[in-house]
Amino acid sequence: MFMLLVVSGAMISLSMGMRQSMGVFLGPVTAELGISAAAFSFSLALQNIVWGISQPFIGALADRYGARRVVFATAVVYAAGLLVMALSRGALALDAAGLLIGLGIAGTGFGVLIGVVARASPPEKRSQRIGTVAATGSLGTVVLAPLGQSLSAHYGWQAGLLAFAAVAGAMMLLSFFIREAPLAAPAQAPQRLATALGEAARHRGFVQMTVAYFACGFQLIFITTHLPAYLELCGVAPSVGAQALGVIGLCNTVGTYIFGQLGARYSNKRLLAFIYGTRTVLICVFLALPVTAASTLAFAAAMGFLWLGVAPLISGVIGRIFGLGHFNTLYGVAFFSHQLGSFAGAWLGGLAFTLTGNYALAWSALVAIGALAFVLQWTADDRPAAAARPALT
Fold first, then answer.
1. How far is residue 179's CA from residue 360's CA, in Å, rounded to a whole number?
2. Interhelix angle for 37-65 vs 26-33, to 10°?
3. CA–CA separation, 234 vs 217, rounded Å?
4. Whole-number Å distance between alpha carbons of 241 and 309
């Protein structure tokens, strides 16, 4: 089990670390290729939406054929996307790279590997172990972002992307060390995927949790995308924005681990509601106080602590309601909602600024959506679906 936790944590750290470090190539790529920042940003946005759309399908493949095969194949796709990006000579090639990288992240990130850890863990330790693995999600950025920046500055942005492709190659090798625990034989006939999806669509608690997950993506991606620009409008030095993102990453590691531990003792749905509600209160406090470097870093630390703590809790709710038979698929369905929120948070934030010249409308949307997420999650029904399912004869 220790080896599985190490391998899964390393894979997630590398996969997410590369994804979160793509911004370091924006300046060099746009300057050399003569494309706009918007064109480069669209290729990154494409990664997110392709990741979200493909996650349920990649999860279904892992449920059926095994995670090791799927992780290996998507690591190959990830490496191919980075190579295409390194060889790009225009916006169209960058978009093609974004599509491939999005598919790669879907198989090498949280969606599949959390399912592997969940299946290998007894119920009383599941949340703790998932929290431990998910906590590594920001650690890769600490190393890979400076690596990409340094290689790009000294040898060109292509060298940085080729190094990232080599990291994806290392993920292919790591996939061979994934050892999956077999599911216990069910007391009833195995449930078909179509039946499981229909049952999830009819389960009020799952639907409410999935809708609330949209708010999570909306809030977090808006902050990572637009906080530096907002700070500049408020007269805060641009370097503070970069520092804030670093603080978020470090505090996320601690917070995710702690919420994984708490999820083993307390109601996962209540903890999710607490995260959504507390994030929203923090946003209100941040906006009500004068925006300074100190207040920004304090806000970043508090938000970072609540950043990815949802991952082990969402997993816990899905496992409690539906079991683990189609875990990766159902997690992918919920995560698709998160990615729709991410796309909306990044795009609508920029649209609001373009139309109004400030971020007031966008911040108001963050507060309203966060409050709605709190209510939906607090009132969600997390009783197991099997309790209401008629026995097969």
1. 49
2. 120
3. 24
4. 22
CB 68 within 8 A of CB 171: no
Share of the chain above pLDDT 90, in %: 40
* Domains of the chain, first to last: 1-181 (1.20.1250.20), 193-385 (1.20.1250.20)
The CA distance from 193 to 368, in Å, is: 35
b/e per residue 344-353 (b: at least 16 CB within 10 A) = bbbbebbebb
Two tokens at 234? 């408020």
The model's pTM is 0.77
If we measure between CA atoms, which residue out of 135, 71, 139, 130 comes closest to residue 106? 71
d(CA 128, CA 124): 8
Which residue, chain included where needed, has tokens 């038979």? 325
Tell me the per-residue pLDDT of 264-296, one tens digit each, with 9 for 90 and over.
889 999 999 999 999 999 999 999 999 999 999
What distance in Å separates the CA atoms of residue 310 and residue 275, rounded to the nearest whole number?
Answer: 8
Split at pLDDT 50, 70, 90, the class of 238 is: low
Decide: 52 and 339 in contact? Cβ < 8 Å.
yes
Name which of 112-116, 211-215, 312-316 the model is least confident about. Answer: 112-116
- In one-letter notation, the amino acid at residue 128 is Q
Dig out the tokens for 89 from the structure: 């000579």
* pLDDT for position 181: 65
Give the model confidence (pLDDT) of 102-111 as tens digits: 999 999 988 7
Q: What is the 3-state secondary structure (H, E, C) of 58-123?
A: HHHHHHHHCHHHHHHHHHHHHHHHHHHHHCCCCHHHHHHHHHHHHHHHHHHCHHHHHHHHHHHCCH
Structure-block tokens of residue 359: 């971020």
Residue 264 is encoded by which pair of tokens? 């083993």
Q: What's the CA gap between 244 and 249, in Å, rounded?
A: 9
CA–CA separation, 23 and 221 (whole Å): 13
Residue 322 phi/psi, 5-degree rounding, is -115, -5
Whole-number Cα distances in Å, 349 to 13, 278, 379: 28, 21, 29
